[in-house]
């Protein structure tokens, strides 16, 4: 019993540690940009990194956070198939509550997209397409994230029923919505900022030695 559960435990632990790597912080340091937790929305994510004006850094943050979600699922499916759903949830929890950064992480949109791509490319691509369409029309990242989360939840239930996979994904998507509670409040008040608009609080100039 103990030996049988070891691959599951390792897959979950490895996924959580992988999720705890904040690419917003890593990339910002590589580009000598200010800490993304110090300006704008103070969220360590690609949208906030974009507020520096450095599109390459924002793109790398997006790819890194999405890639770790996909990688956690891929590794689990290769070495511990029974742990895939739990690894998917663990990498997402790692991004939200990273052990390397005092459990203060991002909102998980890119990581969730990577997880979905790893679990089922149809749901993953459909979710990303939904996010992109809503973002293109409304220019509001949080609204795009929330609408695509609902899309993902519905289609996960359709494809997987209500098994372990659906339960873990539903927990992940509910956490994503919870992390956007302040954005939801601003959306209801009509005060949510738009992508590409000038931030109300400009990022501070990077120090000579970077962050």
The N- and C-terminal alpha carbons lie at a distance of 46 Å
SS summary, helix count: 10
- Sheet with the most strands? none
Radius of gyration, taken over Cα atoms and rounded to an integer in Å: 17 Å
- How would you state the average pLDDT, rounded? 86
Strand content: under 5%
Task: Provide the domain count.
Answer: 1
Unreliable sequence segments: 207-211
**Helicity range of the residues?**
55-70%
Instruction: Please tell me what the overall shape is.
Output: globular
Structural class: mainly alpha
Based on DSSP secondary structure assignment, what is the total number of beta strands? 0
Q: Which H/E pattern describes the elements?
A: HHHHHHHHHH
Topology overview:
Blueprint: H1 2-19, H2 23-30, H3 46-50, H4 55-79, H5 84-96, H6 109-119, H7 121-138, H8 141-160, H9 164-179, H10 181-189
Description of the structure:
The protein has 211 residues and is mainly α. The chain has one domain (2-189). Helix content is 68%, strand content 0%. The chain is built from ten helices and no strands.
Q: Quick recap of the structure?
A:
This protein has one domain (2-189). It is 68% helix and 0% strand. It has helices spanning 2-19, 23-30, 46-50, 55-79, 84-96, 109-119, 121-138, 141-160, 164-179, 181-189.
